[in-house]
Amino acid sequence: MRKFMLAFGAMAMVAPSLVATTVSADAQRRYKYREWRGNDGRLRCRKPDGTTGLVVGAVAGGLLGRTIDTRGDRTLGTVLGGVGGALAGREIERSGKRNCR
């Protein structure tokens, strides 16, 4: 079971980067900023709020924290890893240049 959890944790951290590298840069930009044309024909966009990064980061951080903390019931490691991963995932998703107005 422990090897399965380690493998699952590693996969959870690697899978988003694999998906991001298989999509073209223009498609990534359009998806990330949710572009659309307004009634006046101007390009509009909305920056992501970071919810997906928050959830994925919390899960990956929780699994990593649980793996690192090997003493006792490992609750502290899981909680601290989840909180740290959530904050990191949210900031990673929200970071980046804004290319549209």
Principal-axis shape equals elongated
Number of beta strands: 2
Major β-sheet strand ordering: 1-2
Radius of gyration: 17 Å
Question: What does the main sheet amount to?
Answer: 2 strands, antiparallel
H and E order: HHEEHH
Mean pLDDT: 77
Helix content: 55-70%
Strand content: under 5%
Distance between the termini: 49 Å
Total of helices: 4
- Low-pLDDT stretches are none
Number of domains: 1
Describe it.
The chain has 101 residues and is mostly helical. It has one domain. The chain is 67% helix and 4% strand. It has 4 helices and 2 strands, in the order H-H-E-E-H-H. A two-stranded antiparallel sheet has the order 1-2. Strand 1 and strand 2 form a beta hairpin. Helix 1 runs antiparallel to helix 3 and helix 3 runs antiparallel to helix 4. It is elongated and about 60 Å long.
